[in-house]
Amino acid sequence: MNGAPAGSADAIDRRLIVATQSGLPLVSRPYHLLAEQLGILPDEVMERLARMLACGVIRRIGAVPNHYAIGYTANGMSVWDVPDERIDDLGARVGALAFVTHCYHRPRRLPQWPYNLFAMVHGASRAEVQAKVAEIAALLGPDCRSNDVLFSTAILKKTGLRIGV
Amino acid sequence: MRERAASASIDAIDRAIIDGLQGGFPICERPYAAVAAQLGIAENELIERLQAMLEARVLTRFGPMFQVERMGGAFVLAAMRVPEADWQRVLEVVNSFPQVAHNYRRESDRNCDFNMWFVLATETADGIAAAVRAIEDASGLAVFAFPKLQEYFVEMKLAVRP
Fold it and tell me: pLDDT digit string (tens) for A13-51?
């Protein structure tokens, strides 16, 4: 679980978020340009971004590659029905596997959805993903009561966070 | 956009840029110059290549990744079971909501009918329930929310494959 709200995003932070949520300016001095846009000093922009990074409001500053363009053409959301009383131990072990990029305990939605453990697996092909999913199945052993893998077949939208001005 | 369309050709320098920028981009006066120096290229080449990769959608984003939970907001995974004949209408309805940050079509070998998966991002935790209701009202279909109860691992750092 992510921590409690840090509650430290004030009005200027918010304007900084609005100004950068679609991306960092691609100019030599991006923080100076943001400072100009916000009417504050460049040092303040940099201090605020550094503080938001330190407290986790910003997870990181960086590039988000399109998985498909960098060779991960298969992306499988593996989902598992495991005993609730064992899930924290099992989730930690599945999450530690090198090829699992995201791993969460989520609620079942019975009767339509029996799965409570979600682990995202990326690979160059569906066969590669299925082989990795088989490794997860082996790790879970009899704790896996049922499972499925949902492959993404199209990105329908990918804009990220958009808060209002 | 179909995923297959995004297989733009990238060269070794682009790969080094992508690998180098999945981590921490510096906060300093000329951050692109600092990264370019590490990569052994010129500042303007780095900026031009980032621009080109964003335009070609090799990169979907470049900038700060915000965790709205830390500001009192929420990110919640949600899914719908959309009948094929109704797909386009529902897609337009769902994507029209600014709270929908990402949306993926998914399919399984076991014919799981949960075929539309999206992430709701809202500034307040209450915004999620309101968005779920609004999407249900606008689409006429049930929205299943899957809030994370525990996070075991999140690290989206994939090396570029040759």
Answer: 989 999 998 899 999 999 999 999 999 999 999 999 999
Q: Are residues A117 and A91 in contact, defined by beta-carbon separation less than 8 angstroms?
A: yes
Kindly state whether residues A129 and A78 are assigned to the same domain.
yes
Domains of chain B: residue spans and CATH? 10-55 (1.10.10), 68-146 (3.30.70.920)
Predicted ipTM? 0.76
Kindly report the nearest CA distance between residue A26 and chain B, in angstroms: 6
**A75 beta partners:** A122
Nearest CA in chain B to A122: B158
Structure tokens given for A156 = 């329908």
Please give the tally of structural domains in chain A: 2
Nearest to A103 by CA among B58, B156, B17, B59: B156
Answer whether A153 sits within 8 Å of B21, measured CB to CB.
no
